[in-house]
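<backbone_tokenisation>
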Amino acid sequence: MTSHEIDYQIYGEEMQYVEIELDPQEAVVAEAGSFMMMDNGIAMDTIFGDGSNQTQGVMGKLFSAGKRLLTGESLFMTVFLNQYHGKRKISFASPYPGKIVPIDLTEYGGRFICQKDAFLCAAKGVTLGIEFSRKLGRGLFGGEGFIMQKLEGDGMAFVHAGGTLARKELAAGEILKVDTGCIVGFTQNVDYDIQFVGGIKNTIFGGEGLFYATLTGPGIVYIQSLPFSRLAGRVWAAAPQGGGKSRDEGSILGGIGNLLDGDNKF
């Protein structure tokens, strides 16, 4: 194997974290900001890209970092190396309520396609690349744009899904229609395209957008019930805006509640 072999355990329900056990000189690569805690003896280092081209000179590092820039991620990642003489543990947390999905790339032919912000961490040696859409409609209206993230290698990777996770195994030719924002990822043999909802009433009043994704098997698909964009949109819509109504809108108390809890300033 070219990737480091790591053991892991996932804890929690709504706000999960993954605990990874590292043998001496084993390492894990993670997105900046996902670190939660670690045992003493693990060294942290910031690197360009995913660390897969660190032995290929400056151009290799720039190429690796450039791929991440195209997917909208930071140029830098963090690698955690166990320098202790025994096993050490390190944990990474979910960025928002949902589920952490362990992806064993050896079970998926060494490649897994996921949305751009789904990646959490992986064994060092796993390559984070870009997957270009060759279909104009998918790139313009698919919700994920022309570029998705591609995980390659023979190690473990961990991605994050919002809300509740659904895992669907599609037979050859079987089609699954999904909201474009609810796709977490899929195996390399799945064909991803978009389809117009159709119908004037559906288009204008349906509230589900103009397009949905079609995923055609064979392969495995992961779907999330609450993508971060939808969560953020609902929080923003519910938050009081300048001159807008307060959170007591529709209540019997109305503004009296604000007086009682001190929200109104005099």
